[in-house]
Amino acid sequence: MKQALSIILFFIGYLATAQVSFDATVSRNKVALNERLSVEFKMNVDGDDFTPPNFEGFQVIAGPSQSISQSWVNGRSSMSKSFRYVLQPTKTGKLTIKHGVMTYEGRPYKTDIIEINVTGAVSQPKDINDNSPDAEDNVHLVAEVSNSNPYLNEPIRVVYKLYVKNNTGVSNWREVNSPKYADFWSQNIDNRNRRAQNGTYKGEPYRYLVLREAVLYPQKTGKLEIEPLTLDIDVQLPTNRRDFFGRPYMSNESMTVSAGSRTITVKDLPAVGRPASFTGAVGNFDFKIDTDRVQLQAGESLTASVEVTGKGNLKLMELPKLKVPQSLEVYEPERINNVQTSVSGMRGEIKDNYTIVPQFGGKYVIPPVEFSYFDPQEERYVTLNSGEAMIMVDGPAPASNSNSNAVAAGTPKNVIGSTDQFAFIKTDTVLQSQEKTYFFNSGTYWAILGGTFLLLPIVLIVRKQQERREADVTGNRLRTANKLSKKFLSAARKNIGNHEQFYIALERSLHNYLKSKLNIQTADMSKERVDLLLAEKGAGEEARKEFIELLQSCEFARYTPSTNASMKEDYDKAGSVLNRIDKQLKK
User: Are 578 and 537 a contacting pair, CB within 8 Å?
Assistant: First the structure.
């Protein structure tokens, strides 16, 4: 058994030593047009009939130079035979060194094909044996896109990474061209913790640094281009020279790197199964309608909120409109945004707050509202229903002409505390004069009596005006609209610099101004009707034209970028136009 095992091991060792190898190696895989490289065909046996490739695309400068070596180690012989050529490329591009062929003991062997990348001529050609790395091979700027085939309004993440080989250093990078995101809503993500990390690039170990991150929401379908990020950068490369301790000397050079443009193919949202209530929301959301009060007095106000929470294109979508009975006065909603944008997209909540003022008592039902969105993960539409809301209003019914008023509560009486239950007993003697004075027929008596008769007509007049004001449903509505107009104009001034909030507040101010001056509802506010009513009220043609232009500016400006200067100009224009129309309407 032991003899058989020894024989098997002997044959395994013999076969291992007798294994034929025939390889081709080059000094460099990348050369300039005016540089040279060497190629060596090496075998570990004394092969016959060596045939080199035709070296197409190269000029043979020298070779073949043949070398043979043989050695004996521990009774075993080994040999090496090689053929070396010096080549210079004759054209640029990707060239190949094809198979070299030889035979050994009647069996043919050949080398693998080697690919050489030839660039344009350089001012300082490298030595043939200088295999120090090139900056272009060791530094790469890459734009990594999380999804190159998203749906319309589905977020994608773009990360710009600078990859550097482990034996290379970089410093002082400067942006030459910044990426532009035409046809995308974009948000750059602040990256304060820039730290180098270990990774791989095309299968080789590298260090990389995240330079920039952005979240993009495509606003068009089809093929969209992301323009490249381009940097000028200083690179430190190792050379063939070594210092006393064997460390390589570093050379410094500048280079320009670019991430290259990227093409994103955006899919349209499916038409099949699209609900009628869909208004462009893409993501994953919850939906509800809340009221801050369910019971109130006629003439008081309540707030109804249409709210959407979740993850998706929150800043880019429209909320469904709240519908209320015609007997309830509803004002333009105030938009509230509480949205944060991170590398994964927008997350948070948005809501429209409606101010509702019931003028008469009764039971009111706010009908249910539907909200639909497209879920790109499940690739389907989802519809949510808010359910109906009930409001109880105390006060006169709409058919009643009585102007009953709430009874004012009487002033509270003084209350004696538990520790003062004997305070009404006088414990000190107070001597008074016996001379009596009478209040009746005194000067004080006649002054109070006369004052009462004088004040009575004033009280009646004030009371009558108060009753008339409370009964004036239209007047109350117009006064509320006027207050809201001033409130939203003030909010617009405070939001100069916040593009979206500024134009929302300015538009609400203009709408409520029209309500207060023209007694017109939001649903009837077409530009032609507004112009006609302003003309009937005496507003001049120029003022009317500027007012209509301001309304159009508010409609379009929310979806286009603007500067602080343009927002300040629109605010000043609104104040000027409203002031002029006010003066003209009073004539």
Answer: no
d(CA 167, CA 248): 10
* 435 class by beta-carbon count within 10 Å (0-12 exposed, 13-18 middle, 19+ buried): exposed
**What does the DSSP assignment read for 322-364?**
P---TTEEE-PPEEEEEEEEETTEEEEEEEEEEEEEE-S-EEE
Q: Which two tokens stand for residue 142?
A: 């890459």
Per-residue pLDDT of 215-243, as tens digits, reads: 999 999 999 998 888 888 887 766 666 66
344: left (phi over 0), alpha (psi -120 to 50) or beta: alpha
The 8-class DSSP code of residue 530 comes to H
Residues β-bridged to residue 365: 390
Cα distance from N-terminal residue to C-terminal residue, the chain:
126
Give the per-residue pLDDT at 29: 81
Closest CA to 400 of 459, 500, 473, 450: 473
Q: What domains, with CATH codes, occur in the chain?
A: 15-119 (2.60.120.570), 135-266 (no CATH), 281-394 (2.60.40.740), 473-586 (1.20.120.330)
Q: Which residues, other chains included, contact 462 with Cβ-Cβ below 8 Å and sequence gap of 6+?
A: none
Count of Cβ atoms closer than 10 Å to residue 446 Cβ: 11
Tokens of 126: 């490298």
Q: Please report the sign of the dihedral spanned by the C-alpha atoms of residue 470, residue 474, residue 475, residue 476.
A: positive
Tokens 């000027």 identify what position? 576
Residue 337 to residue 542: CA distance in whole angstroms: 36
- Read off the pLDDT of residues 410-426 as tens digits, 9 standing for 90 and up: 333 333 333 433 333 44
Going by C-alpha positions, the residue among 152, 160, 179, 190 that lies closest to residue 343 is 190
Cα 259 to chain centroid, rounded: 22
Model pLDDT, residue 233: 85
**Residue 532 CA from chain centroid, whole number:** 42
pLDDT at residue 374, as a whole number: 96
Q: What's CA 255's distance to the chain center, in Å?
A: 32
Residues of the chain with pLDDT under 50: 7-17, 400-426
Kindly give the interhelix angle for 541-557 and 564-586, rounded to the nearest 10 degrees.
150
Residue with tokens 């879920």: 375
Residue with tokens 């509480």, as numbered in its chain: 338
DSSP E strands in 136-190: the ranges are 139-145, 156-165, 169-177, 184-189
One-letter amino acid for residue 222 of the chain: G
* 53 Cβ neighbours under 8 A, 6+ residues apart: 97, 98, 99, 100
Pairing of strands 30-32, 114-119: parallel
| 430, 447, 450, 500, 575 from 438: Cα distances, Å | 20, 15, 18, 75, 65
pLDDT for 433? 55
Q: How confident is the model at residue 398, as a pLDDT?
A: 65
Taking the CA of residue 148 as centre, how many other CA atoms within 13 Å lie in the half-sphere pointing to its CB? 8
- DSSP bridge partners of 496: none
